[in-house]
Amino acid sequence: MPAAPLSRQEIEDGLVDLPGWSLEGDRIACAYRLHDHFAAAAFVLHIAAIQNELNHHSDLTLGYNTVSLSVNTHDAGGAVTGNDLALAARVAAIAPGHHVR
Fold it and tell me: CA torsion sign, 84 to 52 to 90 to 68?
């Protein structure tokens, strides 16, 4: 059974404890700045491992020393669900203080 879409208020409430994460259209998103390219690439690998564990995947963009993520739930018609907030929380937990927006 697909996850249920969250209301705008539920999403905003869920983002309160996720520094740097915001609602952007029909997705939640965050960008992280790390020390250098190697650190950013390693961060992408950590995110990929989390996504595989959760079986829930974001769009990832790797820059020189930045990693940007955006996510929604395809099975819920492209809406934000609790799965997206759970993924964001796991990513935020491994990169405290590195968000840039």
Answer: negative
Sign of torsion, CA 54 60 64 66?
A: negative
The set of residues, in sequence order, having a beta carbon less than 8 Å from that of 53 and lying 6+ positions away, is none
Query: For the segment 58-101, what is each residue's pLDDT rounded down to a tens digit?
Result: 999 999 999 999 999 999 999 999 999 999 999 999 987 777 76
CA dihedral 2, 52, 80, 3 (to 10 degrees): 20
Instruction: Please tell me the pTM assigned to this model.
Output: 0.94
Secondary structure string (H, E, C) spanning 53-73:
HHCCCCEEEECCCEEEEEECE
